[in-house]
Design brief:
Number of domains of chain B: 2
Oligomer: heterodimer
Distance between the termini of chain B: 53 Å
Largest sheet of chain B: 5 strands, mixed
Shape of chain A: globular
CATH class of the largest domain in chain B: Alpha Beta
Number of helices of chain A: 12
CATH architecture of the largest domain in chain B: 2-Layer Sandwich
Helix content of chain A: 40-55%
Bound molecules: zinc ion
Structural class of chain A: alpha/beta
Largest interface: A-B, 33 and 31 residues
Order of helices and strands of chain A: HEEEHHEHEHEEEHHHHEHEHH
Number of helices of chain B: 8
Largest sheet of chain A: 5 strands, mixed
């Protein structure tokens, strides 16, 4: 391998990217053929992605936008499990220790050297600031030594781009859900780099609601997989929990639902009835999933798009996939979702988002700062 | 052998490039720009001015604190990743050592004091020895009153140095024969870091890159609360 450091051969305009809201229409490749040509041109592009927005230290190496040569995820979730939620200080300390072994492991797995990289992509927000600073510091150090562009990536945008890793036919315009422990958003993506947030949660994120209910029921952390598993043995029609804001716009709310689960448990305990946890989980999950599916389908129809995606940790929920799949089929919509490994926080999706941005000639300011409250649009 | 030093454990960000022949260049600011925005542009500036490149570096040295976590983490993560990318050794040095080293020409008991926020300070005790300093205590995090009590229980004269000493000057002045270091020595400097790292580089006394971590001195709040609840 050549160990020479040289600036990128293609001279591209430098654009500051504090957030994707600043992307102008000229930066967006509009036609399919244009994209195809660029993809061919960029087949050898190697992007190293870094993700540290929460408790996962992720380092990935991506070739040509869709070949994941390495996707290392080192999680500190075990540290947080006894507290039933992520402890920011612990997560941050874990990132400092996990970052460099993860970089080494990614390079070893991908069988490339740092000097082969075309660019470094890193999550700059939203997320925990103490976590974000570690990834951004490492990414800046790499970009400075290697003299390659530094691409600042919005974590939410990266979740959407996780779909591009595995589905060659996935493309905007599309509408979809980003649902995870930290986020619940319904997003319209008319073109690469353009986003419109149609709805958000007014209180907890979907994954957070799962965590809280799982903790309340005492069935483990993280709550999403625990409830999903438990629900398999229960009846989703057993208990009638409310469908919050089913008819109202595109926003979500989980506080009312959480309260009614607690009320239900309390009443049953007071009455001395035995509680069927499987039924509670199945019915709770159904209430969450039904609202999400309903609003997504409604938005797809209103915006007249046929591509629908579900991204983020909660996208691994089996009932969400099942119901969304059924409704998409019924309404002639195409549903895309990433494999479970690309649903949870990972750096391959960050590298993928970086790849498309690199293609469009967008470069981050090398002095980009983490922004814990970064918005999608 | 060229060493890059990065020290960010206090409000000051400080970077230095130097070798056994001397300090080639230093940059330091104590407010305004964040540590993360300062370090690499400062390093690049120094290299450009001194006509050097990353490939000339033989080692990276980094201040490990104790200090303020955000800056500390940015400095340590940056230093570790630079060392990894350049395949050069990394050497970590306590930031209290750096402060004490700067005022080593005194036969008093030297006590570097770094403001730890939350009304506490980090400190330790050092004594001048031929060619440097020797630490005579463990690193401590505690209230200024605790430091005062430790000094009152001793027959020594003291030289207090660092931003914590200046911040709590009035409260710490009660002890007998206490002298205070100057403003110019309020923050640990990367120049001392390079100077202290060089002999270790010669001895091949490096730190293990993957194991090196900041001196946090405090457990995380969640851990502390958890133990309180468990009792
Ligand atoms: Zn996420």
């Amino acid at each position: 391998m050549a160990r020479e450091v040289s600036p990128p051969s293609v001279d591209v305009p430098k654009v500051d990217i504090p957030g994707i809201a600043d992307v102008t229409p000229e930066m967006i490749i509009q036609t399919e053929t244009e994209i195809e040509e660029l993809v061919k041109f960029d087949e050898q592009t190697l992007i190293l992605g870094i993700e540290t927005s929460c408790d996962e230290t992720g380092v990935a190496i991506l070739r040509g936008g869709d070949q994941v040569l390495a996707n290392i995820i080192s999680s500190s979730a075990d540290l947080h499990s006894k507290y039933g939620g992520v402890v920011p200080e612990d997560a941050s300390r874990a990132h400092v220790q996990a970052m460099n072994p993860a970089i080494a492991e990614a390079l070893r797995k991908a069988d490339v050297t740092l000097w082969d990289m075309s660019a470094i992509a890193v999550t700059v927000g939203p997320g925990l600031v103490g976590s974000l600073i570690v990834g951004v510091a490492a990414a800046k150090a790499l970009a400075s030594v290697l003299e390659v562009p530094l691409l600042g990536i919005n974590h939410l945008e990266a979740h959407i781009y996780a779909n591009f890793l595995e589905h060659p036919d996935f493309a905007p315009p599309c509408i979809g859900l980003i649902v995870s422990g930290g986020h619940t958003l319904l997003v319209h993506m008319p073109a690469h780099g353009l986003y419109e947030v149609l709805g958000e949660t007014l209180d907890d994120a979907a994954g957070e609601a799962f965590d809280k209910i799982a903790r309340y029921l005492g069935i483990g952390y993280p709550g999403g997989p625990a409830i999903d598993q438990m629900a398999l043995g229960g009846s989703k029609r057993a208990i009638k929990f409310p469908r919050a804001m089913m008819k109202k716009g595109y926003d979500f709310s989980f506080s009312g639902l959480k309260t009614s689960v607690r009320d239900y448990i309390r009443k049953q305990e007071e009455a001395g009835n035995e509680i069927n946890l499987a039924d509670v989980c199945a019915s709770f999950q159904e209430a969450v999933v039904e609202v999400q599916v309903h609003k997504t389908i409604k938005a797809a129809q209103e915006y007249n798009v046929t591509n629908v995606f579900v991204s983020g940790g909660v996208a691994a929920n089996s009932r969400l996939r099942e119901l969304m799949g059924a409704f998409c089929e019924e309404n002639d919509l195409r549903l895309f979702y990433p494999s479970p490994v690309y649903c949870t926080d990972n750096a391959a999706m960050v590298a993928c988002c970086g790849h498309y941005r690199f293609q469009r000639g967008i470069r981050a300011d090398p002095n980009i700062e983490p922004d814990p409250n970064l918005h999608l649009a | 052998m060229l060493v890059l030093g990065i020290e960010t454990s206090t409000p000051a960000s400080s970077v230095t490039i130097g070798s056994e022949q001397g300090i080639i260049g230093s940059c330091m600011v104590t407010r305004g720009v964040s540590h993360g925005s300062f370090i690499l542009p400062a390093v690049e500036f120094l290299m450009k001015e001194a006509d050097l490149s990353y490939r000339n570096l033989s080692a990276v040295a980094v201040g490990l604190g104790p200090g303020l976590y955000t800056g500390l983490r940015v400095g340590v993560a940056t230093a570790k990743t630079l060392a990894q990318a350049l395949s050069v050794p990394i050497i970590g040095v306590s930031s209290l050592d750096l402060l004490a080293f700067d005022v080593r020409y005194s036969d008093k008991l030297i006590c570097p004091v770094i403001d730890a926020k939350r009304k506490e300070v980090f400190f330790g005790f050092y004594r001048q020895v031929p060619g440097g300093i020797a630490r005579e205590s463990s690193y401590v995090v505690g209230s200024p009153e605790r430091l005062l009590a430790e000094m009152e229980g001793s027959k020594d004269d003291f030289l207090l140095v660092g931003n914590g000493a200046l911040l709590y000057r009035e409260r710490l002045d009660g002890a007998h024969k206490v002298e205070f270091g100057s403003m110019a020595n309020a923050f640990p400097r990367a120049a001392s870091l390079v100077e202290l790292a060089l002999p270790r580089l010669y001895r091949e006394d490096y730190d293990r890159l993957f194991d090196l971590e900041p001196l946090y001195m405090r457990r995380s709040d969640a851990e502390i609360n958890w133990e309180k609840k468990a009792k």
